[in-house]
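ok, trying the design again with the full structure, not the truncated one.
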């Protein structure tokens, strides 16, 4: 199938066939009644409000916009009281302001915000979220919405969607802005292959590239892509994007343009990743690490579990093992790391390089620490016995370390 045909097919297949607004209207009505005395406005946000959600894949964000008289007051407690009066099951989630996960036939995230018309009036970053919805809806047509869905599906299938710290990918807001800027999914892909680090995307032309790099806070331009928020010019909407994700997206764009295929939109399960890794790395020992994440916010729990994965990989390499692959899967109640390590055992002994021979004090200390030393190429060396010659024993030791235990509820090692 050709490039245009494949994209057209995806546009058609990703158009929602159900009217979600009918499903959520009873909850919105109940919440409005419970909040009537406050004067707050209840507004559906996110992909539902922008009509960019994927079929069967959506979170319902609900913003409760409290009027100006509540500036400086605890609007979270006002919302909590209203939810309590509805006798619905809810969970308090802690952030810069407490917000709520509510069950009422569907799952809702209900977020208290201050009603503002300009970003500078905001007390909290969440206060500007409704403004982003209004901006997108004022600029987007049905073709843009179609291609936002296509880009989301493309990113989700390849593990690049989400600004969470354990993903470091493209947020929904950035996806919206990229499609608006380039006009289409195809337009974005064609241009993205030429992106260089520190590429600046500025829909409203608020800066030149040099001005953006000069005037934005340094912490906001550390990442590889700078997407100027159209309603908050001092904000890089893509600040959480990692270099790894940036490069992966460019590679995927190039591959898709060369050979468009439905496979680019098919999300690979962790089980499939394991099967693929076993086939690819036949000359390897395989290890499955099962992690029960911390019972905290998903972003925090995921970030802690990812730290464990990175620690295991780094420690294996530091000890001399060749890590051929490390697959990663995260869900709220479980994380998995599948490691493929070259099966050749390490030698019983290894060389340790010491200081240059001219640093006499350091050389003396090194020789006291190591019994047998020798000099080569201007440095003193020692030969020492390895503690671990096979990855299994090292991994078992690593999983007992406090650094790992502090980042999860439970962790175990299996041999698939």
């Amino acid at each position: 199938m050709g490039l245009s045909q494949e994209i057209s097919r995806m546009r058609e297949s990703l158009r929602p066939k159900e009217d979600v607004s009918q499903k959520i209207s009873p909850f919105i009505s109940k919440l409005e009644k419970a909040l009537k005395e406050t004067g707050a406005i209840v507004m559906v946000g996110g992909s539902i409000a922008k009509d960019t959600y994927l079929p069967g894949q959506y979170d319902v964000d609900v913003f409760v916009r409290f009027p100006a008289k509540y500036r400086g007051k605890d609007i979270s407690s006002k919302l909590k009281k209203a939810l309590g009066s509805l006798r619905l099951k809810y969970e308090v989630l802690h952030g810069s302001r407490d917000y709520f996960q509510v069950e009422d036939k569907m799952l809702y995230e209900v977020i208290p915000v201050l009603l503002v018309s300009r970003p500078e009036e905001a007390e909290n970053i969440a206060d500007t979220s409704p403004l982003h919805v209004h901006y997108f809806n004022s600029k987007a047509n049905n073709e843009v919405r179609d291609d936002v869905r296509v880009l989301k599906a493309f990113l989700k299938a390849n593990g690049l969607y989400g600004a969470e710290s354990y993903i470091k990918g493209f947020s929904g807001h950035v996806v919206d802005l990229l499609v608006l800027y380039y006009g289409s999914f195809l337009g974005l892909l064609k241009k993205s292959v030429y992106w260089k680090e520190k590429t600046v995307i500025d829909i409203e032309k608020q800066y030149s590239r040099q001005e953006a790099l000069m005037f934005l806070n340094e912490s906001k331009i550390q990442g590889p892509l700078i997407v100027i928020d159209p309603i908050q010019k001092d904000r890089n909407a893509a600040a959480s994007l990692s270099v790894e994700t940036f490069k992966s997206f460019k590679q995927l764009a190039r591959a898709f343009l060369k050979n468009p295929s439905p496979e680019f939109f098919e999300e690979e399960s962790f089980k499939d990743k394991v099967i693929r890794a076993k086939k690819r790395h036949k000359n390897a020992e395989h290890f499955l690490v099962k992690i029960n994440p911390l019972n905290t916010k998903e972003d925090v729990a995921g970030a802690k579990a990812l730290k464990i994965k990175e620690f295991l990989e780094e420690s294996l390499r530091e000890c001399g093992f060749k890590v051929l692959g490390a697959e990663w899967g995260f869900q709220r109640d479980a994380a998995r790391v599948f490691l493929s390590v070259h099966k050749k055992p390490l030698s019983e002994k290894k060389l340790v390089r010491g200081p240059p021979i001219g640093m006499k004090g350091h050389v003396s200390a090194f020789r006291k620490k190591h019994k047998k030393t020798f000099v080569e190429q201007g440095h003193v060396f020692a030969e020492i016995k390895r503690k671990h010659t096979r990855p299994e024993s090292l991994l078992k030791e690593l999983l007992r370390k406090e650094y790992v235990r502090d980042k999860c509820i439970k962790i175990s090692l299996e041999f698939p």
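Keeping the full-length input from now on. The domain at 268-345+389-414 is CATH 3.30.70.590 (Alpha-Beta Plaits).
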